[in-house]
Design goal:
Structural class: mainly alpha
Number of domains: 3
Strand content: 5-15%
Distance between the termini: 96 Å
Shape: elongated
CATH topology of the largest domain: Arc Repressor Mutant, subunit A
CATH architecture of the largest domain: Orthogonal Bundle
Radius of gyration: 37 Å
Mean pLDDT: 81
Keywords: Plasmid
Number of helices: 9
Helix content: 55-70%
Largest sheet: 2 strands, antiparallel
Length: 178
């Protein structure tokens, strides 16, 4: 029976199921599928994809021809740009890019070769934070300590050690007499 049912087109399958449901008021789609060795999920899925739905009040599958109407559709005017204007704009952009090509390449290469970690504008040098650590106790002013802690809250991905070490290193680089 299963192969015969599957050989029918979808309308014939619907007619067959509906006829069986009509003939026996105690049967259901589940019972019919079990009776004829059909997988209920496959049958229901096939019917749904075919545009049918089960109407439980009528105890049969019916064509789901519900039409969805969208209200408040507005018409929007679209203006087409002149192709020459658009082409001229592209040419001007290309000329400007070519003008700064060497500078752009230089910046990209510097960025690729950089050993610095930059996250959200915060720059930490890998050469500094990647080395061996040592303990050293020193006093700092309360307002400076509070600012460092606030900075750490803004950049939680960095340790306090990284922030303080980088700040001290940058200060030394800036003010160290050579």
């Amino acid at each position: 029976m299963k192969s015969t049912f599957n050989d029918l087109n979808i309308n014939q399958q619907i007619d067959f199921i509906n006829e069986q449901l009509n003939n026996d008021s105690s049967s259901s789609v589940t019972k019919l599928c079990k009776k004829f060795g059909l997988n209920k999920n496959t049958v229901v899925s096939r019917f749904t994809k075919g545009g049918f739905k089960y109407d439980s009040s009528k105890r049969k599958y019916i064509k789901n021809d519900t039409l969805v109407v969208q209200d408040n559709v507005s018409i929007k005017e679209v203006s087409l740009q002149d192709e020459n204007t658009n082409e001229n704009s592209i040419n001007e952009d290309m000329e400007e890019l070519l003008k700064y090509k060497d500078d752009i390449i230089k910046l990209v290469m510097e960025h690729k070769n950089s050993d610095e970690i930059s996250e959200n504008g915060m720059i930490i040098d890998n050469d500094i934070v990647g080395g061996k650590t040592t303990n050293h106790n020193f006093k700092v002013y309360t307002n400076v300590k509070n600012e460092i802690q606030e900075l750490q809250k803004q950049y939680p991905q960095f340790r306090l050690l990284d922030l303080v070490s980088t700040a001290l290193h940058q200060y030394c680089l800036k003010h160290l007499k050579k």
